[in-house]
Specification:
The chain is α/β, with parallel strands linked by helices. The protein is built from eight helices and 17 strands. Strands 1, 2, 3, 4, 5, 11, 16 and 17 form an eight-stranded mixed β-sheet that branches.
Length: 292
């Protein structure tokens, strides 16, 4: 993390060159366009620390990955957002992800170990099994952190971005290597500021008892009002085996009549209900924001 801690900043998973940094730069662009605010971006060593920076008011915003089209939800983001109070999703950003294999090896066959963030390794699993079968895959805190190993040993490779290769002056051995051509990651822009209007709304809740039909009863509150769900995700409460909490994304504005009428009923059939915010979604193409 930068030695300079400022509440007027955007926290993100660093160091420089990560995909999250690209999303953080897009967030800065969004804030400039929509709120007339110019904020610096500050790297943090983990997703959880970036989120906690907002909760502790060390940063005003945090940009964190929440879901990848290949590997699904980012568990650390969901768990940390649930654990902390008053966090609100201000905006969602979708960033196309195109992985590259970086190395100073003389050839692909000379690579003996590959480092990267677990999500990046998983998104390239098929390619790695095909072209580097049997090569150990070592997880790191970020795709950029993996690059520190490349200069140490010419038999080491790292899965990272083309931008990182340019920033750190490292050769690209292969690109793209992600298994799906339309690989993309959705990021949340999180703050303590209220987020009460937008085309999408996210909720999280736990249930009062692990009994048959308790989840169905909760979801029926939304179904009978014709509120469409774009995602339902379960996570362990970490209180007991088989005890879960749920994250739900609604294709509806929090201020809509349907959602407002559903909230009292949802509160009555859940143990804890958290409204995580109402927001819009924008795609980032070549560093520029595109409307939803």
């Amino acid at each position: 993390m930068s030695e300079l801690i400022s509440s007027e900043s955007i926290a993100y998973l660093g160091p420089t060159g990560t995909y999250t940094e690209s999303a953080a730069l897009a967030c800065a662009q969004w804030l400039s366009q929509t709120r007339g605010r110019t904020l610096p971006i500050l790297p943090y060593p983990s997703i959880a620390q970036a989120i906690r920076a907002v909760a502790k008011q060390e940063a005003q915003f945090a940009v964190v990955p929440v879901e990848n089209s290949t590997e699904g939800s980012v568990r650390t983001t969901l768990d940390t957002v649930w654990q902390l109070e008053a966090l609100q999703i201000q905006q969602a950003l979708v960033l196309p992800i195109s992985h590259a294999l970086l190395s100073r090896a003389s050839s692909l066959e000379a690579i003996e170990t590959v480092y990267s963030h677990p999500q990046a390794l998983a998104q390239c699993q098929g390619w790695l099994e095909t072209f580097l079968p049997g090569v150990p895959l070592i997880p790191t805190n970020s795709t950029t952190e993996a690059l520190q190993h490349v200069d140490d040993n010419p038999t080491i490779g790292a899965v990272s971005s083309q931008r990182a290769a340019q920033l750190y002056n490292l050769p690209i051995v292969a690109h793209p290597i992600n298994d799906l051509p339309d690989n993309c990651t959705r990021f949340w822009v999180i703050s303590l500021e209220p987020a009460i209007t937008g085309k999408h709304t996210s909720l999280a809740f736990s249930l009062p008892a692990n009994v048959p039909g308790s989840l169905v009863k909760t979801l029926e509150v939304l179904a009978k009002r014709n509120i469409n769900l774009s995602r339902v995700e379960s996570r362990p409460t970490k209180r007991a085996v088989g005890d879960y909490l749920f994250f739900v994304d609604l294709e509806a504005d929090l201020q809509s009549e349907a959602v407002q009428s559903a909230l009292p009923e949802l509160k009555s059939c859940t143990e804890t209900l958290k409204i995580l915010g109402s927001y819009n979604i924008q795609t980032v193409i070549d560093g520029q924001l595109k409307p939803e």
